[in-house]
Amino acid sequence: MTESAILRPPKITERHVNQLVVVYVRQSTLQQLEEHQESTRRQYALAKRARRWGWSDDQILTIDDDLGTSGASIKGRQGLQKLMQEVRCGHVGLILALELSRYARCCLDWYRLLELCAQYDTLIAENDVVYEPCDPNDRMLLGVKATMSETELHIMKQRLEDGKLAKAKRGELVFDVPRGYVWSVDEEIIKDPDAQVRRVIELIFEVFERRRTIGGVCRYLEAHDIKLPHRRDSFGHLAHLGPLEWHKATNSAVSNLLRHPIYAGAYVYGRRQRPSNAGFGSRGEPGRVRVDQGQWLVLLKANHPAYIDWKTYERNVEQLEDNKPAVKGYAQNGQALLGGLVLCGGCGWRMSLHYKDPQTWRYECENYKTKAKDGCRSFSGMSLDELIETLVLQALEPAAIEMSLRVIEEAEKEREKLRELWEQKLERARYRAQRAFEQYDAVDPRNRLVAQTLEDRWQEALEEEERIRRDYARQKAEWQTPLPGEQAEEIRRLAQDLPVLWHAEETLPKERQEIVRAIVDEIHAQVEGETERLRVEVHWAGGDRTAAIVQRPVQSWKQLSYYDELVDRISRLFEAGKSDAQISERLNEQGYRTAEARPFTRAALTSLRYNLGLKRAQSSKPTDLLNLAEDEWTTDQLAERLQMPRASLYNWIRSQKVNAEKRAAQKRKIWVITADQAELQRLEALREQGTSR
């Protein structure tokens, strides 16, 4: 018996030694790989033990593909998958690891490996202890150790999380802070030392206060060539700040900035957490999800310098939630005033806005489309918008002057802030150009390889400075000059007549929508049956409510709730000898409207009267009053006699190919053509000549 046979455990037979031995090496993290090198060395040293047990060097396979990979899941572990593939090939007699937890810390992955080893009679070794998966006792022991290994992983995680939470509750846990903030040398959160970075962050909150949408903020930043700051290769620590870069603003970046409570001076930990079911035995590393403010693990207000106060932060978050399609939404570019504000009086759902064309729109309940509930309707929105417009103008009259003056002040303040930001950009460009010149000036002119590169950098910096200077000059030219005293006084005067400003061409639909949203919380609207009556209740921002009835357009006259009354009124006026124009005027004075919810016109009244069977006696045609001679014809008569279009006959009259004159009949003048038998033959020949062409 050889010396190796004496030293190796009895479970290892010659059949196992004639096959491969796999040394499996794994470290959980890259940090362990760098700082715990002794553990790595011990795992690689297992190959020596395999040699002592009788394996030669060409029979030893070391798999170390999983260095820096957690054992919580098989996902991403190329080494373990390679190990299992080697076992499936049936030429592995033994697999070696420093401890069983190196193989897996998930029971599902562990038992998968265990079944493969039992199927192909492969032994499993933990340091110097060998297990035989086919043996029931060894299998039970391996199962217990696998459960302990999996439990140990969760205990370690929980211990680390508890330590982080305890430190976070004291406000001492250091994490990567967002743009606009850095960690001081004393481990305190402070604003970024760069003035331009701070000014851009402040400007974003100011623009959102006016525009109320993320898209509006991004469009504003793009229009004024303003980009978001980003420090590359930096954990946000003042001691080792990375270089400052400027990136184009995106919706996600602006959204994250507006939603982050750190800008309100709050130290927060636990805004994103793993689901409650992602505990013991979960597969892989489940993603974190955003939770409500009441579920945050740590919230320390007034912890560091803030860009906005806490109330502004809460108002911004509420606005972002309202901007979602399923809720109130935000001001759009269409003509409709009330998109997102109208609620169905039947079911309480928010009604959607649909445009037929730019000037025609409807408010529609989702339950009406699906026929899910009775009482839900779709109705034309123009009448409702007109009612709300009237109520809003009445409510705004006392504050009109103050609003106008505040707009003037805010416009001038915004202009000053943009000037300051452009000056900072220009100053930064000057510094870069000066710095590039100093580097170029300091190099030895004879070293042309370096000097040429530095000269190119200097030239690029000068061109960038000139570009910013030109853009700044163009921007200043586009800005409106400050309002002189005469124009300010004119606005004060117009503010006293708010409807003039409301209907002015310069006032955009979106601006009217913003005004309505500022003072109206929601509007409940419900149609009374199939009639034209739309019952409306306006909920104002201050808590007051206003109820009203508005007439909506309907498809049929008979849908009008006052149809019988209207028919009786028209019949009486008709029998009294009133004309259609007089009847229409009288109905409008009494508040009656058409099925389209419009004032009566003569044409509308005539159409309705004919439908009701109210017809006036036929009067004689003007042509009947003409005393025509035997050889005289009207245009209708002659066109019928010659069997030709009347339009062609009028062309003959204009070109004087016929003998025609105008005669008066019932305050009208009618063409009369003289044509005896010979003239008729000439005209017939002229007609044939024109037809042949």
TrEMBL record:
Keywords: Coiled coil
MF term (GO), any: DNA strand exchange activity
Pfam family for this entry, one: Resolvase
Domain Recombinase: 178-326
Entry-linked SUPFAM superfamilies: Resolvase-like
Residues covered by the Resolvase/invertase-type recombinase catalytic domain: 20-171
Coiled coil: 401-475
UniProt-recorded name of the protein: Recombinase family protein
Organism: Persicimonas caeni
